[in-house]
Design goal:
Two copies of one chain form a homodimer. By secondary structure, chain A is mostly helical. A two-stranded antiparallel sheet of chain A has the order 1-2. In chain A, a hairpin with a 2-residue loop joins β1 and β2. In chain A, α6 runs antiparallel to α11. The longest helix of chain A is centred in the middle third of the chain and has 27 residues. The radius of gyration of chain A is 20 Å and the shape is elongated. In chain A, 37% of the residues are buried. At the A-B interface, α7, α8, α9, α10 and α11 of A face α7, α8, α9, α10 and α11 of B. Chain B binds a DNA duplex (30 and 30 nucleotides) through α3.
DNA sequence: TAAAATTAATCAAACGATTGATTAATTAAT
DNA sequence: ATTAATTAATCAATCGTTTGATTAATTTTA
């Protein structure tokens, strides 16, 4: 229940407003280009509340990352322990990842920038660690597929896996190129449901011909 | 020839030193995290020379981009006008792009950041424009392949093209994930000739099974 | 249950440090 | 002597952070 002590605007308290505004602004302009004053002006929460809740601007950023970094793993583990075929597991993984990253476009951009620039190594290490844990699970799908003879045995599994990630990540991080390639107007976007489906379909079809012995 | 008037260190004049140092630093830390003082300390050239030669920090950055943005197009046009098969044109394109982007890893990172963040729209527009011009040429390879019956007719050409770019770009921009996936030590790198070749081979093999009617 | 004490939350104002940029003086080559 | 190139010093503006005071809700005391 609301203690009545915390100030809220439209039902959202100050801590939450700081997080959401920081996420939005940093995704758009990058961490260093976003000042604490931009965040405070963007949500009407007093500047001092950043130190109050998060200790510092970096603390706010860190909280943002720890809040979001993939909860995908649980779902991957369910997939792994299911009785689906390796190919079903893999195509469901693609489905899962596209959905999750599209749900969190702003944060996915933040993550991409953080990994690219590699300032704040604690953050990049944290992110890399979690992505890698997921990758290990997905790698097991590939190996299972090869052992069962469903997948070709001569594929470069690490390269293939990193390609799947690359395609989804890049779609979100470099929408400007996508928009030009797909001839979209300025007000249109490459983040819609239609492109989300088209991306899934393309990825799955490409993997089908690349991986399966009998596509 | 050297007029003898410009100060040089190790044969490199101030303008050039500013450009190279800015490229190095911005690729490592991002544009906003690099101050004019970092650049001047990094190369020993006086701060005021940034205004003197480039007008401003942004001007220096712009000069960096305009200096580098792909001269790939000429080579693509040679490929286009050659009598190679569509598949040969495409696999040579992959070869060309991997080589060029690996030759300019630092600048490729700068480009990736610029496109992701999209501050300074003049820069992103400039980059997008040139990348798109190249994409149009490569698209013609796809269309030619489909018309001749060499390529499958049901492939999503735009998605496929953007995937090729994504995989190469991401390889350079998110080396941290690659290093973890390929279990490299801290001092090792994912930018070596071995990985460059492995990336090419993977891309070409994946495209072969994805595109060709008779792989 | 009323008054006093404590608490978390918020605020405007200011801190020293650093930012990108400019100045005016100096150097060095023609 | 002229001029391009370089320099140290300085500028206003903004940075992230901290301060001391204030508000309002809760807890404790009487």
């Amino acid at each position: 229940m609301n203690s009545g002590r915390k100030k809220t605007i439209e039902g959202v308290d100050s801590r939450e407003r700081l997080l959401r505004t920081a996420e939005q602004l940093i995704a758009e302009h990058g961490y260093d280009a976003v000042s604490t004053r931009m965040i405070h002006k963007g949500c009407g929460v007093n500047i001092a509340m950043i130190s109050y809740y998060f200790g510092s601007k970096e603390g706010l950023f860190r909280a943002l990352i720890e809040e979001k970094v993939p909860k995908i793993r649980e779902k991957l583990e369910v997939l792994r322990d299911s009785d689906q075929t390796p190919w079903e597991k893999l195509s469901n993984t693609i489905d899962l990842y596209v959905d999750r990253l599209f749900e969190n476009i702003k944060f996915t951009k933040v993550m991409g920038q953080e990994l690219s620039i590699n300032a704040r190594p604690e953050n990049s290490d944290f992110i890399v660690k979690h992505i890698h844990l997921n990758m290990v699970i997905i790698l097991s799908f590939f190996k299972e597929g090869i052992e069962k003879g469903d997948f070709k045995s001569n594929i470069d599994v690490e390269m293939t896996l990193s390609s799947i990630f690359a395609i989804i990540f890049q779609w979100i991080n470099m929408s400007a190129i996508g928009m030009k390639l797909f001839k979209l107007e300025d007000k249109e976007t490459v983040y819609g449901l239609d492109y989300q489906d088209r991306l899934k379909r393309h990825l799955i079809e490409m993997m089908r011909s690349h991986l399966l012995v009998n596509p």
